[in-house]
């Protein structure tokens, strides 16, 4: 009887599969043809191209410009903000793939776009983001011109917030967005699918993008994370005392006395070691001695953490919040593949080599993981031993602001670090720069909280970075970094307006409230402003306090 039931079950399953396959085939046979739905289609473009003016359907004429920027099939866009290209397909159709083809020719400042996003809509007003992309290759680089066709494929990538069975979006409108850094050259956009609704296609609901909100799950509740650099600096400026720290964790009056709480999280991070080697990037890489020096400095008796604890303890007494704890984020240095002589970690007498060319990709990967494992194990042991009365360890910060394209196992190293951090029930933080090629994939990399750097303060002619940065951060579900340094005080004519642009942007674009934010302030700009006798400089500190409290107005 059991065998008979099994046979009948198999027979029915095969029959149902046959019927469903036939039905699907019929569904496609009835006038359905897989094709480029954008072929020859007109479109609306937000900014007219500054080079090789669009003839009307240049992006859909099927003509590719190859690697030659002189080819008239290309159209060029220069800086100035996000570009959008909107297609009306005429009716709702089944959309399976979207591609946009870009040129890189760095010698003439043609770079891949910083970011590319694809959207679909049923009404042309309310949009659903189906993909955020960046080139797998460097945005710029030496060598001859090359192209990259950035692809969203519903069969492979799926649609965010939809079931795995939804492989196509059933929509009428498609929008392609891209952000030029210098020049961005685009020659063709393709939208592949079917004129009719076919199996796997679904009308997707529009979803309004949101910034990363502070919560226990994301940032451990931190909304405003201030960066305090505690590496090696001239004149001891990387050494944090209780007095220096007080204007950061509390809002102090002109008499220096705490009046209210200020930043609710502190990130300690170091750029250079005592020997001048780099703790955070791929060049001039630090070794084990440097990593150990930085850890010992941070945890030293009367060192940076000890002084933060004392400052919090004193502030808690003065502000009558006895059990107050400052939330702390500590940094893991970056294990650079340029380091071929890191030092012996496991006591076998052999220095660990991270150079993937010398030792191979797999050995390099294992050695890099070994270094991170050693460092975090030592860090957690020290933290537990010190048992600071007024500090709470919220998590670990990944120092490198980029995900290196040409480094083997780079993403796996980050994900491995994430696993170690999460094993201690802590959060993993990241603050990628404007050019980072993997900002959109921060969650896939294993981060719990990330804030995008607009990098507006450091460059001229990039006012678009505030609205575009806010837009990118929101689309990616990230927070935002507020950036300034000591030049705000020494050169207000050049930098005051940039500082205000960040604060005003918080009002205009909604990231002042309920958004995870990081604050880059050079070395000690906030301290200098808070203690300045110059009322104009002191006013900058007061503005920051109001911004943190959500009461700043333009």
TrEMBL record:
Keyword list, A-Z: Signal
UniProt keyword annotation of Signal present: yes
Keyword Signal: yes
UniProt domain F5/8 type C: residue ranges: 56-179
Signal peptide: 1-25
Protein name (record): DUF4855 domain-containing protein
Organism: Oceanobacillus arenosus
């Amino acid at each position: 009887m059991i065998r008979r039931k099994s046979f009948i079950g198999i027979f029915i399953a095969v029959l149902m599969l046959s019927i469903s396959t036939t039905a699907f085939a019929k569904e496609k046979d009835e006038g359905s043809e897989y094709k480029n739905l954008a072929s020859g289609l007109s479109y609306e473009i937000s900014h007219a191209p500054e080079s090789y003016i669009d003839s009307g359907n240049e992006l859909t004429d099927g003509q590719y410009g190859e690697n030659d920027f002189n080819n008239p099939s290309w159209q060029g866009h220069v800086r100035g903000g996000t570009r959008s290209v909107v297609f009306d397909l005429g009716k709702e159709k089944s959309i399976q793939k979207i591609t946009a083809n870009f040129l890189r020719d760095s010698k003439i400042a043609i770079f891949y776009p910083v970011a590319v996003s694809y959207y679909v809509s049923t009404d042309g007003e309310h949009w659903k983001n189906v993909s955020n992309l960046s080139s797998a290759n460097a945005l710029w680089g030496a060598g001859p011109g090359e192209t990259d066709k950035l692809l969203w494929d519903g069969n492979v990538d799926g649609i965010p917030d939809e079931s795995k069975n939804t492989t196509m979006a059933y929509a009428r409108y498609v929008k392609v967005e891209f952000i030029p850094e210098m020049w961005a050259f685009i020659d063709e956009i393709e939208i592949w699918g079917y004129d009719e609704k076919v199996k796997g296609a679904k009308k997707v609901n529009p979803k309004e993008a949101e910034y990363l909100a502070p919560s226990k799950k994301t940032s451990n509740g931190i909304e405003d994370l201030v960066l305090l650099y505690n590496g090696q600096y001239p004149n001891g400026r990387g050494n944090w005392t209780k007095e220096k720290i007080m204007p950061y964790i509390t809002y102090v009056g002109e008499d220096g006395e705490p009046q209210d709480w200020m930043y609710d999280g502190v990130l300690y991070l170091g750029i250079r070691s005592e020997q001048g080697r780099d703790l955070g990037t791929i060049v001039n890489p630090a070794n084990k001695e440097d990593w150990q020096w930085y850890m010992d400095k941070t945890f030293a008796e009367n060192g940076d953490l000890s002084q933060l604890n004392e400052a919090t303890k004193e502030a808690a007494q003065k502000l009558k919040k006895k059990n107050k704890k400052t939330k702390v984020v500590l940094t893991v240095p970056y294990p650079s593949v340029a380091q071929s002589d890191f030092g012996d970690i496991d006591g076998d007498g052999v220095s660990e080599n991270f150079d993937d060319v010398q030792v191979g990709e797999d050995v390099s990967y294992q050695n890099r993981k070994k270094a991170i494992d050693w460092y975090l194990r030592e860090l957690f042991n020290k933290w537990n031993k010190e048992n600071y009365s007024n500090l709470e360890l919220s998590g670990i910060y990944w120092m490198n602001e980029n995900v290196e394209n040409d480094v083997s196992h780079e993403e796996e190293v980050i994900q491995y670090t994430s696993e170690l951090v999460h094993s201690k029930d802590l959060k993993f933080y990241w603050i990628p720069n404007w050019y980072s090629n993997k900002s959109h994939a921060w969650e896939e990399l294993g981060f719990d909280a990330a804030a995008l750097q607009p990098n507006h303060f450091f460059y001229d002619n990039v006012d678009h970075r505030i609205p575009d940065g806010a837009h990118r951060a929101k689309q990616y579900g990230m927070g935002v970094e507020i950036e300034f340094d000591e030049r705000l005080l020494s050169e207000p004519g050049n930098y005051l307006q940039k500082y205000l642009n960040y604060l005003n942007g918080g009002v205009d674009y909604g990231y002042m409230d309920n958004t995870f934010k990081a604050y880059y302030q050079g070395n000690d700009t906030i301290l200098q402003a808070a203690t300045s006798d110059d009322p104009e400089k002191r006013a900058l500190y007061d503005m920051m306090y109001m911004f943190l409290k959500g009461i700043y107005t333009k």
